[in-house]
Design brief:
Blueprint lengths: L1 E5 L5 E6 L2 H4 L5 H14 L59 H17 L3 E4 L9 H12 L4 E5 L4 H10 L5 E5 L5 H6 L2 E5 H11 L1
Parallel strand pairs: 1-3, 3-6, 4-5, 4-6
Antiparallel strand pairs: 1-2
Helix pairs in contact: 2-3, 4-5
Length: 209
């Protein structure tokens, strides 16, 4: 698949062939869904907690005697049917972690990138660079390249030049900067466009092809 390569001014400078193994892979919806659910589950902290009857304070004394009152027998005012009592069948700390083989995760990424490419969601630039870390400059560049679409900016590595891009994009709503090595299924689904500099394309080619 050949796509146009733009500069930061939005001008077409050349064409590049996207690796077919990554951007023309079979689109497996079930696999992408599994990878997405896994990522969302692994992001959960699982720190929710409620107190059972043995953890709430009070309730040491039997409210009334066992027999002779005409009322139902009660052993503690901290039982679940009492106001302020413990809770039953409610959440407690647990892990939501799901496992998924690396080959399946990479296949899901290839599938998602292929789906993006099929709907013209991949925008390739020569390189992401700005003269200074100004939000205004980044907003103007993104407007020329992707219009009003939300965009995921993929950078190949951490460096001084890319730090300028990160600082300039931080305050732009609907834009996010991500390292190519951290590309994930959720961000690919969240953003309408993927802005991919040629060095980042090389990183994806080395890890996913």
């Amino acid at each position: 698949m050949k796509v146009d390569v733009f500069n930061m001014e939005g001008q077409k400078v050349k064409q590049v062939e996207l690796p077919a193994a990554i951007f023309e892979a079979p689109i497996n919806i079930d696999l992408m869904h599994q990878a997405y659910v896994r990522q969302m589950a692994n992001a959960r902290l699982g720190t929710h907690d409620t107190k059972v009857r043995g953890e709430v304070s009070g309730g040491g004394k039997k409210p009334w005697k066992q027999k002779g009152t005409g009322r139902a027998r009660q052993g503690s005012t901290r039982a679940a049917q009492w106001v302020g009592g413990g809770r039953i069948f409610t959440p407690h700390p647990r892990k939501y972690t799901q496992r998924m083989p690396l080959k399946m995760r990479r296949a899901a990424l290839r599938s998602a990138l292929s789906a993006k490419a099929a709907e013209a969601g991949i925008v390739v630039v020569e390189d992401l660079n700005l003269s200074e870390p100004k939000t205004r400059l980044m907003a103007q560049a993104l407007n020329r390249l992707v219009g009003q679409s939300s965009v995921l900016l993929v950078i190949p590595e951490k460096s001084a030049s890319y730090d300028v891009v990160v600082r300039a994009a931080n305050n732009i709503e609907g834009a996010k900067v991500l390292l190519a090595g951290y590309l994930n299924i959720r961000d690919l689904f969240t953003f309408e466009k993927v802005l991919l500099p040629l060095p980042a394309l090389d990183v994806l080619n080395s890890t996913l092809a």
